[in-house]
Amino acid sequence: MFHIFQYQPLRLITQNSLSSMCLKLMLSRPVAFAQIWKSWFSSHSLLGKKNIILMGPPGAGKTTTGRIVGQKLDCPVIDIDDDVLETTCNMSVSEKLRDVGYEEFLEEEGKALLKFSASGSVISLSGSNPMHAAGMQHIKKNGIVVYLDVPTTVIMSRLKSKQMDRIVGLSPGISLKDVLQFRKQFYRRWFDIRVLCGGDVEAEVVAEKVIDAVKRYQDSELETFISTRSSRSGRSMEGDSHKLYFSDVVTQGLALDGGLFVPERGLSKFTAEEWQGLIEATYIERAQVILERCIHPADIPASKLAEIIESAYGENFSCSKVAPVRHLAGNQFLLELFHGPTASFKDFALQLVPHLFAYCIPRSCNYLILVATSGDTGSAVLDGFSRLHDTDKQRIALVNFFPEDGVSPIQKSQMIGCQKENAWSVGVKSDFDFCQTAIKQIFTNSDFTGFLTVEYGTALAAANSINWARLLPQIVYHASAYLDLVHQGIISFGSPVDICIPTGNFGNMLAAFYAKMMGIPIRKCICASNENNVLTDFIRTGVYDLRGRKLISSFSPAVDILKSSNLERYLHLIANEDGQLVTQLFNQLENQGHFQLRKDLLGKLQQDLVAGWCSDEDCLAAIHSVYSTTGYILDTHTAVAKVVADRLQDRSCPIIISSTAHYSKFAPAILRALRIAEINQNPLSQLHLLSSYSALPPIHWGLLETLKKTGNGDHQVCVADISVLMSHIETLIQNHFM
């Protein structure tokens, strides 16, 4: 066995002499002693008997970084190449590789790892160590594996400058780029922590990032969540026993005080170099990196998160780019968010969240998820939860409430057709605002939720955009869209863009703002409303006023919303986390139907947001105009955003318009916009008619298949009464879990 004692410092200090030295320093220079003791304790408590294991491709800087980390933590440093392999082989690594070939070299390298043991050290692996499974399993048992993630182009440049040609796997017909891409699968398999390393980042900076990342890994207390309605004094009085973590807020959904969960310390910010390192990355790779920063590994380990992300986006989206950016005209670009299985942007969250939820919930309890939808969420959440493993379906069920007469015929057909053995749709004879408010009231009804837990062993959870986990995947696609423009050469990194989003519940808009906070150079977020333009009025005046307003049915039903739930999170943010103020505002809205922002808060809001609205007539006219000039068909929501973008943009920078749904979902309105006189009422016939136009994008594959298979089917319908909804919930629990 290869033991760490070979690497202990040569200067030995006996226990008595150490005690004597400490006593003299403490008496003569107490401040200096305190600082030294604090530094020593911090570094040794960080490692304990664990090792920090640096992993990455050749040229990532593992050896240099390892030495600096070891110096900073005052602990032994071991380089596997120099200190283990070359000692074992009695020759250089490059000579050994040349002598035996790469397959035998990998095996001997792995055997050396299996004989190796250390504790409390910084270990720099070779670039090929992670390719030997047994060796990595052995060394990982007593260590935290830190992946130094350097862009492939940077690695290739470094290796070329060093003239390194002896690399495991490199041979005639196999390029260096191919070797580096092949190895990534092994790095992703083994790492606990990822540290992004740009091309020009100094080793000293990388070392600091490694130490900070290890501290974060070992201290989940740093990433707790609070309610938008909790006061600072209340939080300090509650103490550690009431701390909530990501896994808690995913399952709980809504805070007990009626507020929404937000991270207590905000979101992690990326440096410009870190963002630039993702320009060449795929969508799935970008999602992995961004979500690792938002979800603590104590809640979901990086390897499990990677598995979930691959499951969500690997095969379920019809476009390999997942969320492609398409040039529309002039300085306008479309972010196409409709390539998922149910043809709307909701798929980005709802292909991911069910797996996060299933991983986070305790195995000892059943869960019923409540959803309110104005259209697209229903089919997306039903499809997402239907893809869970069978064992998870037995303990997780879902009920989707939607306005019976407030969604498009195709949306309704989707929601009914997507019902599964653990998921049901219930039409409510009211509007979306009632459905959403009813769910909030059910969650905060402790008598009812307590009864369900005691009587049926079932807890309630939410999958609406009020659930924190729903927002995170939306941050990813806003960031990815910007990086795509950089990759396409439209802009250079650091140049600003505007974003225009059809907005109802404010979740998509909030996610764009979070992307901006994390370092994406978004200048203005443009909020686009239809005739239900309460948000537009609020952003312009600071007055949120529902008095005398009635919901207007429009051709863009997903934004037929008067109460924008996620606005509460944004106001909490700009009010410096003043939970008492947020409580006051939203209690006033609930009881009196209005509230008004202070002047200083309105000023902050208007630095971030601008807003406009669009009539149904202007929406249809925009669809016709864009199709006539480009051959591209916008859906009704995207058309609303296009109209508002035309009115409010200043054309000084690119503007990314979120195309939130496929036009197939709103076939009657689209056919009307295209000036079709006679429209067949059968949804499938409408899609066939649209497909005859050979427009861009083509008819959505998943939507067409769903309508072919299911038709309209059966579903339950109930009156707009909360007690009736509660009765439905209890009956569904009895039928599924009992």
TrEMBL record:
<dbReference type="InterPro" id="IPR000623">
    <property type="entry name" value="Shikimate_kinase/TSH1"/>
</dbReference>
<dbReference type="Pfam" id="PF01202">
    <property type="entry name" value="SKI"/>
</dbReference>
<feature type="modified residue" description="N6-(pyridoxal phosphate)lysine">
    <location>
        <position position="346"/>
    </location>
</feature>
<dbReference type="GO" id="GO:0030170">
    <property type="term" value="F:pyridoxal phosphate binding"/>
</dbReference>
<protein>
    <submittedName>
        <fullName>THNS1 protein</fullName>
    </submittedName>
</protein>
<dbReference type="InterPro" id="IPR036052">
    <property type="entry name" value="TrpB-like_PALP_sf"/>
</dbReference>
<comment type="pathway">
    <text>Amino-acid biosynthesis.</text>
</comment>
<dbReference type="InterPro" id="IPR037158">
    <property type="entry name" value="Thr_synth_N_sf"/>
</dbReference>
<dbReference type="InterPro" id="IPR027417">
    <property type="entry name" value="P-loop_NTPase"/>
</dbReference>
<dbReference type="InterPro" id="IPR000634">
    <property type="entry name" value="Ser/Thr_deHydtase_PyrdxlP-BS"/>
</dbReference>
<dbReference type="InterPro" id="IPR029144">
    <property type="entry name" value="Thr_synth_N"/>
</dbReference>
<dbReference type="InterPro" id="IPR031322">
    <property type="entry name" value="Shikimate/glucono_kinase"/>
</dbReference>
<feature type="domain" description="Threonine synthase N-terminal">
    <location>
        <begin position="236"/>
        <end position="313"/>
    </location>
</feature>
<keyword id="KW-0028">Amino-acid biosynthesis</keyword>
<comment type="similarity">
    <text>Belongs to the threonine synthase family.</text>
</comment>
<dbReference type="InterPro" id="IPR004450">
    <property type="entry name" value="Thr_synthase-like"/>
</dbReference>
<dbReference type="Pfam" id="PF14821">
    <property type="entry name" value="Thr_synth_N"/>
</dbReference>
<dbReference type="GO" id="GO:0008652">
    <property type="term" value="P:amino acid biosynthetic process"/>
</dbReference>
<dbReference type="GO" id="GO:0005737">
    <property type="term" value="C:cytoplasm"/>
</dbReference>
<keyword id="KW-0663">Pyridoxal phosphate</keyword>
